[in-house]
């Protein structure tokens, strides 16, 4: 053949790259999971993480952060505790912002209460239950995956993981509200 | 004249609008104060607020929020307390995000400590002093404008005011870091 081998290999690579462009994490639609998801779903835990990504409407650039968020301190020293500190702060700022956006003249006590109600442990554990965290989060044998502190910690870690993955507190706030509203909608349906 | 009066008036209005386009708050450069600033600087307090806007590099769409942030509870029932609750949460999420962005493997205790160091009262009051809050914030006669809780409260209210004015926690985080870095740079200069 007239074409040198190296050039031929480069040409094939070019065609392959053009045919399968990598999807941007932020552009991830709920209906179209990225190629990485199918490739990574090589264990039940991976499959659960992929389903969770779809449920929260956010695709991770660094899937390692998602894994960490769904890992309790009893299971591994590499866990979601540090991410949960960040996630709580992001949830609190999103909640305080929503209270004041709805009423600019809200009193400081109303902002504090609204923030506690939306970002506190009770709401946080409820949202985590609804999104299925107890069946995803990895815990050690003696730890109950459905205990409120475990579920809430994992949910906050998930919110923090989004912030760190995306580099913005607002992206984390968006996911926080999606989880919160999802929980509220399911509660309303259950009450009917 | 052949032109009807209404059309002539509309034409003049069109020319005036084209000649003096209103500047978008987000597009406010540090060197070019918006037309609204000069118009609003009808009191020493207004002039101080306009100077503060330039110093923090953010022009308010709703100047009323800036006024409130620089008003202590001892001065008026319309004050910055509620905004400070929001500002603290935004500062904490920005600080936690920076710690983890610098070291993804940071321990939860390091994230908490880093957040406390950057967003806590000592750093907050120092940043507020450097940006000149004691000479801007409005307090009642018996209240000391340079007291740490007053200065820190006003600084947090300013950060919260940016979040509410802009609708995003990230815009508040940016202003928070600008104030923080400004204070750090001035401390370094003073130490030389």
UniProtKB/TrEMBL annotation, chains A, B:
Keywords: Signal. InterPro entries: RNase_III_dom (IPR000999), RNase_III_sf (IPR036389). Residues 49-167 form the RNase III domain. The keyword Signal applies. Residues 1-19 form the signal peptide. One of its GO terms (cellular component) is nucleus. Gene3D superfamilies: Ribonuclease III domain (1.10.1520.10). The keyword Signal applies. GO terms for biological process: regulation of gene expression; RNA processing. One of its GO terms (molecular function) is double-stranded RNA binding. This is RNase III domain-containing protein. It comes from Brachypodium distachyon. The lineage of its organism: Eukaryota, Viridiplantae, Streptophyta, Embryophyta, Tracheophyta.
């Amino acid at each position: 053949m007239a074409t040198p081998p190296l050039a031929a290999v480069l040409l094939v690579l070019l065609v392959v790259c053009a045919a399968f462009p990598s999807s941007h994490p932020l552009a991830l639609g709920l209906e179209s999971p990225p190629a990485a998801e199918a490739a990574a779903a090589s264990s039940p835990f991976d499959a659960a993480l992929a389903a969770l990504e779809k449920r929260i409407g956010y695709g991770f650039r660094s899937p390692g952060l998602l894994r960490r968020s769904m890992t309790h301190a009893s299971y591994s020293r590499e866990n979601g505790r540090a991410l949960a500190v960040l996630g709580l702060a992001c949830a609190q700022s999103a909640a305080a912002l929503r209270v004041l956006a709805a009423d600019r003249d809200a009193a400081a006590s109303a902002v504090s209460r609204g923030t506690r109600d939306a970002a506190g442990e009770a709401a946080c554990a409820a949202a985590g239950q609804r999104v299925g965290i107890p069946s995803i989060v990895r815990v050690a044998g003696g730890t109950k995956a459905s205990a409120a502190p475990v579920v809430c910690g994992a949910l906050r870690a998930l919110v923090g993981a989004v912030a760190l993955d995306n580099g913005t507190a607002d992206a984390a706030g968006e996911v926080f509200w999606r989880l919160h509203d999802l929980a509220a909608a399911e509660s309303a349906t259950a009450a009917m």
